[in-house]
Write a structure and sequence with these properties.
Layout (H helix, E strand, L loop, with lengths): L3 H28 L4 H25 L13 H17 L5 H22 L6 H18 L8 H21 L5 H22 L8 H25 L5 H7 L2 H14 L5 H29 L1
Helix pairs in contact: 1-4, 1-8, 1-10, 2-3, 2-7, 2-8, 3-6, 3-7, 4-5, 4-6, 4-10, 4-11, 5-11, 7-8
Length: 293
C-alpha cells in the first residue's frame, strides 16, 4: 500500500529532474564549450540509450513488455525533437527562470488550446485565467530593459508548444515507458541530421558532454519514468497543478546554482502566468468534482 506521505515525497522529488533540465542546459551552453546542436544530439541519444537499457532490464526481469503499436510514432518523435532543439537554442541567451516560465506557460496554453479544439469549453473563471496567463507571457516579452531576447523567447514558446503537443499525444498510453523509449529512438536520425547540418560549428568539451549526458539519461529519460510512476497515484488535476512549482524551482535554482538575477518583470510575469493557469486547472477540477456528485 502506498501511503499519502510517500506519494507526497515522490511527487516533490519528481519535480527536481523536470527542473534540472533547465539548469543543465543553461549551464552547459553558458559555461562550457559545447555547441547547441551537439548538446541536443547528445541529450536525445543519451535518453534513447538509457530508455533502451531500461526496457531490456524489464524484459530480463519478465516485467511488462510493450504491446503492439505501443512503441511511439514519428509525429510524436518530431514534436519531441522540436521541443529539445528549440529548448537548447533558446537557452543560449535566456536565463533559467525566464526560460522555464516561457516553456511552462506555452505548454499549458497549448494543452488548453488543444483541449478546446477537442470540444472542451471554458467558463468565465477559466477564461479569465487564460487571459491572465497570456497577458503575463506578453508582458514578459514586451520591449524594455529587462525583457528577454525576442527571438530566444519565441523559440522557447515554440519548445513549449512542441512539448504540449507531445504530452497531449501521449495521454492515455498503456505503456508510457515503452512509448517514450520509441519516441526517443525515433529522434536519433533527426538529431543526427541537425548535427550534420551544423557540423562546421560543432564543438564539444568534456564538461559540456557530461552535462548533455546527464540531461538526456538522468533528468530526461529517468526523470520522465519517475514522473510517469507518480501520475497514476494522484489525480490528474493535482498532477497538473503541482507542475506549477517547476518555474519557481528553476528560478530559485538559477539564482543559487548559476548566479542569475531575478527581475521584477519576471516576478510579476510569473505571478500572472502561474496564477492564471492555476485558475484554469483548479476550476476544471472543481467542475469535474461537481459533475461526479
Amino acid at each position: 500500500m502506498v501511503t499519502r506521505a510517500r506519494v507526497i515525497a515522490l511527487t516533490a522529488f519528481a519535480m527536481l529532474p523536470l527542473s534540472a533540465n533547465s539548469w543543465l542546459c543553461r549551464a552547459a551552453l553558458r559555461d562550457t564549450g559545447i555547441d547547441v546542436a551537439s548538446f541536443t544530439s547528445i541529450r536525445l541519444l543519451s535518453g534513447a540509450l538509457m530508455l533502451w537499457l531500461l526496457l531490456q532490464a524489464r524484459r530480463l526481469w519478465h516485467r511488462d513488455t510493450a504491446a503492439p503499436g505501443e512503441s511511439g510514432n514519428w509525429l510524436s518523435a518530431c514534436a519531441l525533437f522540436g521541443y529539445a532543439a528549440l529548448f537548447s537554442f533558446a537557452y543560449v541567451e535566456l536565463t533559467a527562470g525566464t526560460g522555464a516560465l516561457l516553456l511552462f506557460g506555452a505548454v499549458q496554453v497549448t494543452m488548453i488550446g488543444l483541449g478546446l479544439r477537442r470540444g472542451e469549453r471554458l467558463d468565465a473563471v477559466q477564461l479569465m485565467g487564460v487571459t491572465l496567463a497570456f497577458g503575463g507571457l506578453v508582458g514578459l516579452l514586451a520591449p524594455g530593459l529587462s525583457a528577454p531576447p525576442l527571438l530566444s523567447g519565441a523559440m522557447m514558446l515554440g519548445a513549449g508548444a512542441c512539448w504540449g503537443l507531445y504530452s497531449m499525444r501521449g495521454q492515455g498510453a498503456q505503456y508510457p515507458v515503452q512509448v517514450t523509449a520509441g519516441n526517443f529512438m525515433r529522434t536519433v536520425p533527426i538529431t543526427a541530421a541537425l548535427s550534420l547540418v551544423m557540423l562546421q560549428n560543432a564543438s564539444v568539451d568534456a564538461t559540456g558532454f557530461w552535462y548533455a549526458v546527464a540531461s538526456g539519461a538522468l533528468t530526461s529519460a529517468l526523470g520522465y519514468v519517475l514522473w510517469y510512476s507518480v501520475v497514476p497515484l494522484i489525480k490528474s488535476v493535482t498532477a497538473a497543478t503541482v507542475q506549477l512549482s517547476v518555474p519557481v524551482i528553476v528560478a530559485v535554482g538559477g539564482v543559487l546554482l548559476l548566479g542569475e538575477p531575478i527581475t521584477l518583470r519576471l516576478v510579476l510575469a510569473s505571478a500572472a502566468v502561474l496564477g492564471g493557469i492555476g485558475l484554469v486547472i483548479l476550476e476544471r477540477g472543481r467542475r469535474t468534482a461537481g459533475a461526479e456528485k
